[in-house]
Amino acid sequence: MATFRPPRSMSLKMRSVVQKLLLVFLVWTIIEAHISHYRIARTEREARAKGVLIEPTRVYIASLHWNNEKMLRSEWNKGVVELVNTFGPDNVFVSVYESGSWDNSKGALRELDQELDRRGVPRKIILEEETHKDLINGPQEDDGWITIPDGTRMPRRIPYLSRLRNLSLQPLLELAMNGTTFDHVLFLGDVVFSVSDVLNLLKTNNGHYAAACSLDFSKPPPFYDTFALRDSRGHEHASQTWPYFRSSKSRKAMVNAQPVPVSSCWNGIVAMPASTFTGIRGLKFRGIPDSLAAAHLEASECCLIHADNPGSRTRGVFVNPAVRVGYNRPAYDAVHTFVNGGDGGGGGSGGGGSWLSLTEVYFGLWRSRFARWFTSSWFEERDVRGRIAKWARSGEGRVEKGGFCVVDEMQIVVENGWKHL
């Protein structure tokens, strides 16, 4: 039998159509990159302009520290003092919990305490002597411990961190009972930040949010806190580089340089209404139950707090891409270098540019497409959902509202920090 071959004219027409479609697609992606680059630059200009506008507001600053002496002395203490100067000592309360550091974080925080005292700032700075080693070798609690594969009982990292975060909020509850209230709780991580970063964060989505988060970086361009960040559909990131998100709603907001609706975030600095944590229905940080963690599952307390918060559904949780912080000065500077042109080569510090070069925007759009086309979070999410469902069936009344936070991990406290198992 003769093999059918399409007429040469038909083959040429098909090739011509494909070439034209590819050309149109290429032209469109170039246009899309230019539009996105322009929008990012415009948003940067607007954010920097708004950052100088200070409205009366009362802020409760909460922070945890462990072995952060270098950051405290070089950046963090100074940043907190500048915030106090901006809002006014009467409008700020500083709550710091330091937990058994073996560097001189305690000394650095004593210096901050003295500086705040000179300014008359109300505060509570706790310097905890208990180290991780003390915790591990101390009495085992009924909750927050797990049996690891070698049969040893070890403290879980997330319940431990949840307890510390709740301790850092205890003064807020005590003050509220005495009639002293605040507008915002500002959770400050061990990051480099500026006053304008905080002002812009507080104004995210015109101040209408259940939580607003920065973007955090340790070694840019990848963002850092993958554990807590979930897009609007509860998925993990598609890519650690811009525009990050798998869901179209979150991704489009990032591409358009708008506040990004997400299910959960933390990422360095977080602002939440203070009323979230006060009153009879005030929230507390938590981990997933030990019985669920035993199925080799874990979830960030910084994600679960959004899952537990009814306001997350009514007021929304947002990442503000105009607010970017770093876990070191080079990282911070790298995401605050404004590129005016499209050469992608570092750029200058021009006030009208974008923090992303045109080249980064273009390749970021393509990396995102390939990640979404050729990878899927479905398989891991299905496995995790199956383990949660099995756990729920095995005990009456068992339910986990933060299922989208849960991942296939086991995390324990060890003497020099924490580790995965």
Automatic annotation (TrEMBL):
<protein>
    <submittedName>
        <fullName>Glycosyltransferase family 69 protein</fullName>
    </submittedName>
</protein>
<dbReference type="InterPro" id="IPR021047">
    <property type="entry name" value="Mannosyltransferase_CMT1"/>
</dbReference>
<dbReference type="Pfam" id="PF11735">
    <property type="entry name" value="CAP59_mtransfer"/>
</dbReference>
